[in-house]
Design brief:
It contains five helices and twelve strands. It is α+β, with helices and mostly antiparallel strands. It has two domains: 65 residues, no CATH class; 259 residues, Protocatechuate 3,4-Dioxygenase, subunit A (Sandwich), CATH 2.60.130. The strands form three sheets. Strands 4, 5, 8, 11 and 12 form a five-stranded mixed sheet that branches. Strands 7-6-9-10 form a four-stranded antiparallel sheet, with no helix packed on it. Strands 1-2-3 form a three-stranded antiparallel sheet, with no helix packed on it. A hairpin with a 2-residue loop joins strand 2 and strand 3. It starts with 6 loop residues before the first strand and ends in a 43-residue tail after the last strand. InterPro entries: Intradiol_dOase_C (IPR000627), Intradiol_dOase_core (IPR015889), TAT_signal (IPR006311).
């Protein structure tokens, strides 16, 4: 996680428009009162804990735009009334340059249909068709669409494995792609419905960057998050051929027990989904972003960075894969 940097003003160093009470110290060493005014509600609640944290935030006047208790796990903008989508881990299989592999500097990564590999392979990932759409909004700018933003999305396949990392598909790059938001802030991807592997609710990862020219620089990302898929749709899809292992895995989970969505039950990350197993599904998610805050890379419930969970190969879902080789491929 990047350290927050103060800005120099005529009155002295400041962060997010607030003068530092201890100018000689780093932003993170300014004291509890300053921290509470700086942390998002999600991070502050994790820091303070439970109902006591809610009371402390209310007493400190956090300026969260009147978020209710159910909205207390993400920050809100008083000007737009939108709640910022929670920042989450990018997991061990991002291929964004942070874990051994970088697919974002390859020709062909900018594409809408991510079902097949590009480059030296044309292998297509099997599965029920899933089209997913993100609408990216700038909550600092009255919730206006963040036109021109670049969104990188990636997910596991029908077997719960990730291209470029999992055994036997290290040379594939399917189910990964980048799209640029249109004037309405929308991006759309054609994909397949992901599996439910042990420890993780069915999900799609994504990162938002200011523009296409910044996708190869992870430090320039505006947000890293995940989209959750509704249980009723998952149940229907997993009853079809090819998804058999997902049935048992999903039966052991809820959105509340998932190690990423569990802190608020995925309330701000649960997609609105329509369609059928026969024709395919369309999932839509609104992605409000506070472009003035530093991305945190997310925490699992309980404050542990990264989280747990297992892929079918035994690699943790949101931590460094064990036995990683030069490209980060987990052992079989």
């Amino acid at each position: 996680m990047r350290k927050p940097k103060p800005q120099q003003t005529p009155d002295g160093p400041a962060y997010q428009g607030r003068l530092l009470p201890n100018p000689g110290e780093e932003v993170v060493d300014q004291g509890l009162g300053f921290d509470l005014g700086t942390l998002s509600r999600r991070r502050a609640l994790s820091f303070l804990g439970g109902v006591g944290g809610m009371a402390a935030l209310a007493a400190c006047g956090s300026g969260s735009g009147g978020a209710t208790a159910g909205e207390g796990t993400a920050s809100a903008s008083s000007s737009s009334g939108l709640t910022e989508i929670p920042d989450e881990t990018n997991g061990p299989y991002p291929a964004d340059g942070t874990n051994g592999v970088n697919v974002l500097d390859k020709d062909g990564i900018v594409r809408q249909d991510i079902r097949s590999s590009f480059g030296d392979s044309t292998t297509t990932a099997p599965g029920i068709p899933l089209t997913f759409e993100f609408t990216v909004l700038d909550i600092v700018n009255d919730g206006k669409p963040l036109a021109g933003a670049a969104v990188y999305a990636w997910q596991c396949d029908r077997d719960g494995n990730y291209s470029l990392y999992s055994s036997d598909i290290e040379n594939e790059n399917y189910l990964r792609g980048v799209q640029v938001a249109d004037s309405d802030g929308r991006v759309k991807f054609a994909s397949v419905f992901p599996a439910c592997y042990p420890g993780r609710w069915p999900h799609v990862h994504f990162e938002v960057y200011p523009g296409l020219d910044s996708i190869t620089d992870y430090d320039k990302r505006l947000s890293t998050s995940q989209m959750a898929l509704p249980k009723d749709v998952c149940d229907t899809v997993f009853a079809t051929d090819g998804y058999e292992s997902s049935v048992e895995n999903l039966s052991k989970l809820t959105l509340k027990t998932d190690n990423v969505f569990g802190d608020d039950g995925g309330v701000h990350q649960l997609a609105t989904t329509t369609g059928s197993a026969k024709t395919g599904y369309t999932a839509k998610l609104t992605v409000p972003i506070d472009t003035t805050t530093e991305p945190t890379a997310g925490n699992a419930p309980g404050g542990a960075p990264g989280g747990g969970g297992q892929t079918p190969s035994g690699a943790p879902a949101d931590g460094p894969p064990p036995g990683s080789g030069p490209t980060g491929s987990p052992d079989s």
